[in-house]
Amino acid sequence: MAPSRKAPPPVGTITRGTTGVNRLRRSDRWLVHDELVSTTLRESTTPLVVDLGYGAAPWTTFELAARLRTVRPDLEVVGLEIDPARVVEPRDGVRFARGGFELAGLRPTLVRAFNVLRQYPEDAVPDAWSRIQSNLAPDGLLVDGTCDELGRRCAWVLLDRHRPLSLTLAWDPFTVDRPSDIAERLPKALIHRNIPGERVHSLLTAADQAWERSAAMAPYGPRVRWREAARMVRANGFPLRIYRRRMRDCVLSVPWEVVAPSDPAQRSPHPR
């Protein structure tokens, strides 16, 4: 009998793995309501979602499954962790396995990787993106994001198999003083780019200026004030996405080209 081949090790390194109940609620809400994401899940013939690097406990994976199943009830959800000690038994229709950027051989429609690449060097981002993108389903999407410990400040990049599509910032209206406070939670591809001369810095500066100019709306609450500030930012030429539904969070979303790093190597990584 021929000897069995040993499966290749997962790609990546073990990170801190901190997690918390309901920490990713803002990104989950956005995923449920985003037209591209929800349409992709509904139309997929093999609806599989991978939560990559869920951490020391899988609470946010269960929450992701429950929320996305309001869009697609038959959704399959798999949590992947590179640390074998964190792989737990299946529960509530969610299974778990060991895996990294190679996605354990899966071909998911959606991958969520939150607070994973934040712990890697900036120059590791293009290769990590490419590895994940190359293992997505043909219509697959990747969400690479970061948030604070309580989930009050969040930022994420949405990518398809070929390129980054958008950057979204979302924050608790009542615990953030100005939009640029989210800069400390920018995804790894952008967090070191918040300096004069970079596009993301220009966007955050414009958002802060509009926030100051909209101070007259403060008595109506921070959500109303942010809607007015966002209108001002658009009037200054930044194509902020317009959300028609009532938003619980303050949200700023722009096409990737608006914030793409000036370094061409970071601008548009492609799968190998």
CATH topology: Rossmann fold
Helical residue percent band? 25-40%
Give the overall shape: globular
* Helix-strand makeup class: alpha/beta
The overall strand count is: 8
Task: Tell me the fraction of residues in β-strands, as a range.
Answer: 15-25%
What would you report as the Rg, rounded to the nearest angstrom?
19 Å
Q: Give helix and strand order, one letter per element, not per position.
A: HHEHEEEHEEEHHHEH
**Span between N and C termini?**
35 Å
Largest sheet: 8 strands, mixed
Main attributes of the structure:
272 residues; alpha/beta; Rossmann fold; 8-stranded mixed β-sheet; 8 strands; disordered N terminus; Methyltransferase family protein; SAM-dependent_MTases_sf
Any overview of this molecule?
With 272 residues, the chain is of the alpha/beta class. It has a single domain (25-257), classed as Rossmann fold (3-Layer(aba) Sandwich), CATH 3.40.50. Helix content is 28%, strand content 18%. The protein has eight helices and eight strands, in the order ααβαβββαβββαααβα. The chain has an eight-stranded mixed beta sheet with strand order 3-2-1-4-5-6-7-8, sandwiched between helices. A hairpin with a 4-residue loop joins β6 (153-159) and β7. α1 packs parallel to α3 (59-68). The protein is globular. The model is unreliable at 1-5 and 266-272 (pLDDT under 50). InterPro entries: SAM-dependent_MTases_sf (IPR029063). This is Methyltransferase family protein.
